């Protein structure tokens, strides 16, 4: 088999999900069906808690070294990366004007000359969402209205998650009222360290209820969780409690999204699907700033979970500077030259 992933692999026939999953689930495969959650099952958690870090690291190294994406195929995959992006600004100096600029970039993510050079003028390729703090939700909703771009709000005392639960739930409800249709919540990491799984489960169930129709993305803060076992168990609790997505990081930890941690979370998603038939989304965030790294994540997703997880309904990048580098790489693909960052609008 060729070591090059072809564009057809990205946009062609849907790769079948694991045969064991099809055999074990009575629920039809439906990417739009929301995860209703399930009762907290400590026995099921125990069955999937074992994680071999060395094996995961070998798997990641093997995939990133032997999968090569070049030329037009690389351009196609980078366009897919844009469509799976949550374009984010989570700075202490954010303003309404900064958020409006971010939304304008989301609506027109690539310069016109690049769009025309790639021959995609008739296509709509945009980030899946913009992600902002609660005070800027209404501004973002107004700025992207009618474009199909979602608005995600980070919530529940982001990034530490240590406010009283009632305060965190009120913040979710306020963001939903302002128009956010996705809510990124952060868990208190101390509940994981204390193995307080029932308390963590109940908190996430309450957060899911507060979201209403808005989708719930649960941030684990994997850089703070210390072990892959903790990552795996926290992932399972979040999905059992009704998470639509599980997300690696706030982007504020000293260590954010890493491929081995992502692989552990992907395998938790697979185990949950095999048990319930529901497809859970995955969002790596923090430190994903180059086109090359985005390709590594896309390859890992396709190899581990299959083609259905290369859609924005099931995969997102949390990113602030990634779009600039993708735009530069696409310009290099067309011209053979890299442009300076200042030639590209805010991303």
Describe the protein's topology.
Elements: H1 7-11, H2 19-24, H3 42-47, H4 53-66, H5 71-83, E1 85-88, H6 96-107, H7 112-118, E2 129-133, H8 137-144, E3 150-155, H9 165-177, E4 182-186, H10 189-193, H11 197-211, E5 215-219, H12 228-240, E6 245-247, H13 259-276, E7 281-283, H14 291-305, E8 317-319, H15 322-335
Parallel strand pairs: 1-2, 1-8, 2-3, 3-4, 4-5, 5-6, 6-7
Helix pairs in contact: 4-13, 5-14, 5-15, 6-8, 9-11, 11-12, 12-13, 13-14
> What series of H and E elements makes up the topology?
HHHHHEHHEHEHEHHEHEHEHEH
The low-confidence parts are: 1-9, 11-28
Name of the level-1 CATH class: Alpha Beta
Number of domains: 1
Mean pLDDT: 89
Query: Total strand count, please?
Result: 8
Shape call: globular
The CATH superfamily bears the name: Aldolase class I
CATH architecture: Alpha-Beta Barrel
State the secondary-structure class: alpha/beta
What level of helicity do the residues show? 40-55%
Strand order of the largest sheet: 7-6-5-4-3-2-1-8
Could you give a short account of the major beta sheet? 8 strands, parallel
Number of H/I helices: 15
Give the distance, in angstroms, between the N- and C-terminal Cα atoms.
Answer: 37 Å
CATH fold-level label? TIM Barrel
Strand content: 5-15%
């Amino acid at each position: 088999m060729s070591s090059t992933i072809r564009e057809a692999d990205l946009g062609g026939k849907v790769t079948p999900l694991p045969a064991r999953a099809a055999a074990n689930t009575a629920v039809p495969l439906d990417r739009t069906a929301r995860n209703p959650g399930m009762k907290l099952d400590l026995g099921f958690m125990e069955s999937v808690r074992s994680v071999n870090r060395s094996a995961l690291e070998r798997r990641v190294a093997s995939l990133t070294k032997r999968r090569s994406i070049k030329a037009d195929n690389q351009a196609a995959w980078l366009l897919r990366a844009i469509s799976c992006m949550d374009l984010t600004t989570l700075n202490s100096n954010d303003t309404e004007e900064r958020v409006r600029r971010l939304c304008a970039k989301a609506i027109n993510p690539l310069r016109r000359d690049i769009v025309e050079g790639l021959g995609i003028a008739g296509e709509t390729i945009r980030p899946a969402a913009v992600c902002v703090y609660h005070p800027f939700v209404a501004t973002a909703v107004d700025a992207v209205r009618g474009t199909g771009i979602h608005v995600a709000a980070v919530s529940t005392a982001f990034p530490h998650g240590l406010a009283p639960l009632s305060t965190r739930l009120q913040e979710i409800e306020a963001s939903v009222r302002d128009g956010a249709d996705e809510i990124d919540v952060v868990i208190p990491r101390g509940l994981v360290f204390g193995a307080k799984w029932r308390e963590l489960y109940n908190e996430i169930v309450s957060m899911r209820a507060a979201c209403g129709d808005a989708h719930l993305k649960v941030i684990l803060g994997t850089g703070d969780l210390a072990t892959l076992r903790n990552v795996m168990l926290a992932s399972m609790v979040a999905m059992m409690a009704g998470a639509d997505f599980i997300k690696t990081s706030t982007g504020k930890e000293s260590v954010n999204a890493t491929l081995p941690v992502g692989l552990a979370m992907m395998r938790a998603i697979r185990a949950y699907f095999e048990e319930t038939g529901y497809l859970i989304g995955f969002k790596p965030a923090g430190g994903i700033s180059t086109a090359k790294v985005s390709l590594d994540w896309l390859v890992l997703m396709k190899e581990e979970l299959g083609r259905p997880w290369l859609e924005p309904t099931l995969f997102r990048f949390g990113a602030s500077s990634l779009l600039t580098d993708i735009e530069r790489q696409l310009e290099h693909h067309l011209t053979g030259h890299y442009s300076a960052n200042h030639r590209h609008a805010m991303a």
